[in-house]
Amino acid sequence: MEYLIDLQNVSRQFGDVEALRDVTLQLPPGRIGLLGPNGAGKSTLLKILMGLLPPSSGSGRILHHELTRGSGAANWELRRDIGFMPEADALVPGLKGVEYVALAGELFGMSRRQAQRRAHEVLTYLELEDARYRKLEEYSTGMKQRLKLAQALVHDPPVLLLDEPTSGLDPSGRSAMLRLLLQLGKDFGKSLVLSTHLLGDVEQVCESVVILLNGEVRRQGSVGELCARRQNRYRLQIQGDPNGFLEDLRLEGVELVHDNGRGEVRVAVPPDWITRTFFVLADHHGVAIRGLMDDDESLEELFYRVVGRT
Amino acid sequence: MSANETTSTSRTSQRSAPVDKAEAAAPLPPAISPAPVLLLEQVTKWYGSVIGVNQVTLELRSGITGLVGANGAGKSTLLRLATGQIQPDIGRVSVQGIDAWDWKAKRRVGYCPDSDVFYEEMSGFQFVESMARLCGYPRRDARLRTEAVIEQVGMVGRCDRKIRGYSKGMRQRIKLAQALLHDPDLLVLDEPMSGIDPIGRQDFVELFTELAASGKSLLISSHELEELEKLTDHVAIMARGRIAAVGTLTQIRELLDDYPLAIRIDTPEPRALAAHLLRLSETVAVDLSDESSESGAGTLVIQARNPRKFFQDFGRLVIEEDVDVRRLESLDESAHAILGYLLGGNRG
Amino acid sequence: MTTRPAAPVLLTYRPWRGQLHGPWHGIWAIARTSLLMLLRRKLFWALYAFSGMIFLFYFYGQYLQSWIAMQLNEQELRLGSGLVGITVKPKDLLELLKTALRLDGSGYTYRSFISFESQIVMIVQALAGSILIGNDFRFGSIPFYLSKPLHRWHYLGGKFLAVAVLINLMTTIPAIVLFIEYGMINSWDYYVDQWRLLAGILGYGAVLTVCLGLTLLATACGLRRIVPMIMAWTALFVFARLLGDGLAYGLGLNASWRLIDLWNDIYLVGNWCLGMPHGSIRPQPQPEYWEAALTLSGVCTICVVYLHRRIQAVEVVS
């Protein structure tokens, strides 16, 4: 299978500091989430994936580009196939929206006309049509984020690298951005690498994750495989005073795993349990069940498990 | 709906001691209470001809209150009014009865701003200590307070490095430290968890919960609704310069009568259940989707009015008809969904 | 909410398949955009107007000279009419134009023209430096450029090209126009006889471009804001000039002390290109041409090395 990212024992040192140690990654094309606490080596890995930094040791390929070694010119051709959406504002003040995106297109190697035409098209797709003739300084945070995505998309790259794409966005802007990314990944077949602190973003968009800690890869693979399925666990939302109800559950052999004090509990049931019993006991105590769900391991729990916190 | 209807229970992650059932059934009568920690009375503020907040009334007592809303809804203006940085054009802002503009009120408020405004050449410790001196502490007390506060935010080993080299999480902690120096009763936090990794976020959640448990009042403005939902379910939603709703999420949801609650039910025999559900008076619509989950169960999405009663009736229905419920979920009760309705569709 | 599908979207994202050129293509794009941003500033146009004035002065001066030479038959000339008219003797005027301004189509003309223009160029450079590069650092545009398939040298090349266009628009190209004008006024043989002068003009322009361009890029990368840049620029060219003058002329030290005056070094090398005798440069004790060339090469090399280290691709991802 053709891997999107194929790294073998890649390490990178900065003087004495080892930012990445023995990283071996094999990820197929798709939507990939890159998670890890601060200082785990995420930004170093991103730079290597973009060809901005050569690895100190190890080899690999991104798409079909081999990674070059040594401290010489890193692999700038790789960036033709990648659209990078940075976290910080990477704007060129004084330009108008469409000029900015057209410049990006030309820098990718498009001819001037094609770049301009494509800039208009991409800005329309990202709902910046009305603002495209305005100067960049006048854009709001949400518009700037979409503009950064536009300049990454202008040359229609097969791979998008996104660094905190939803930072600074309000909830509706955030869900709009995530829907956009999901659409680009699913409907238009682009591969995404999403580096973020927000696990919710990764849950919504990504199929596979890479978890980095202290420069090492702790987990990689699809979310479905990595998150443990727990057959006997349920999450309940209770309307009313839960105490008598929970007592009864305990008597029936149900273990209370967590109670958040606001009517939401997580329980582990004995084998051969039927959900109807919940309702029976609830009715007994005059409470109602508002929610009932399987309590499989969430991405957040997986993350904390891997990173070593409860 | 004002905030003092929910009594001042502290929000801890531990379950509170079992309360007598009779008491839980009836709401507590409003107590004769001292002045609320933060009170905004019909406050309006303009910036030139642009209106920042439009006749806002809000009352906070102890505990954590979330402030959510779109960008440009007036949240920062509200926070600046609360911390006494600007004065309202109409109305009054008071902290524990004292006008917020007055320096005596500012003594009781700690502010953790959104932007980073540090002297980058200082070390974290020096910065917090200078802030302590500015608060009015004499030299020795300033040092002691600084040490205490740095320990509280968990920056003990790292506070001697220059701020220039700090990560986002460390900067947020320093900001929080300087807000806690004078032990304020009200903490106003603007996006405290943006840019922090999940582990740091968990630390903050614990810290905020602790602070709330010790009797402080926290007003947290954030876009990260998932984190807010872990901290509290008491939110104030702002839109277009006004407070759209205040209360717990469930209460707010119940206000939206136009939108019946959407509830998803997974069960092996959806159509049979659908037939039963149609007999209930609260059911407004039943949507049979063709998608089936992995366990072979079918999915129903129904819309119901009067959710409280619906869930009680549903429970009885399950018992009577022996329904195998695999999943029961309210689809639009999250802060996210509610915000979506209040702000009206796609934006941003 | 029932899962009703949203309104069908007919206009959706379209993929793009096309040829991507190499990074050299991007250099002109960077140069063009930078110039565009500079051209949008009114201050730039004010400064450009000054340089235009100087050019017009020389242009019409040359024309006036030949016109007066034709009028030399008459003893007196009345310029203007009525009360505002003045009476001039064409001979005196011609003497004035020839001796004082040396508008004779020789190397002196071009030397003085280019050196005048380059003073204006220096001021424009300070503005250009802060807009072209300083802004990029301040507003974080460098990651935007470096995350594209370019090397940092392409980025610097684009900026250098913008600066080069700027300098040449104000010095070399007007000088060439003057050259052509002189030939057209006097005789066609001028072009054939004095082709070396044309080469000299281009040479002087090239020296200006390379030296000023590199020092500008280096200074702008080091000091990003406009005020420190103007200060450094003034120190480099004005203050060093005074110092060199003071040391060599005032204190009577070895003429080689003038080498710290970069401005003078460029002037010397320009004279060399135009084939001017060493003795014609005032004030006199001047370092040799090759000394000046060596100093300039040294300064340029330092600038290049500095730039190599300053623009780091690692700034792209924070």
Walk across the major sheet of chain A and give the strand order. 6-7-8-3-9-10
> Count the helices of chain A. How many?
10
- Mean pLDDT over the full residue set of chain C: 81
Low-confidence runs of at least 5 consecutive residues of chain C: none
Rounded to the nearest angstrom, the radius of gyration of chain C is 25 Å
What can you see in these coordinates?
The complex is a heterotrimer of chains A (310), B (348) and C (318). Chain A is 33% helix and 27% strand. Chain A is built from 10 helices and 14 strands. Chain A starts with a strand and ends with a helix. The model of chain A has no long low-confidence stretch (mean pLDDT 88). With 348 residues, chain B is of the alpha/beta class. Chain B contains 12 helices and 14 strands. Chain B has a 6-stranded mixed beta sheet, sandwiched between helices. In chain B, helix 7 links the parallel strand 7 and strand 8. The radius of gyration of chain B is 24 Å and the shape is elongated. Chain B starts with 20 loop residues before the first helix and ends in a 5-residue tail after the last helix. The N terminus of chain B is likely disordered. With 318 residues, chain C is mainly alpha-helical. Chain C has 12 helices and 2 strands. The longest helix of chain C is centred in the middle third of the chain and has 32 residues. Chain C is globular. The mean pLDDT of chain C is 81. At the A-C interface, helix 1, helix 2 and helix 3 of A face helix 1 and helix 5 of C.
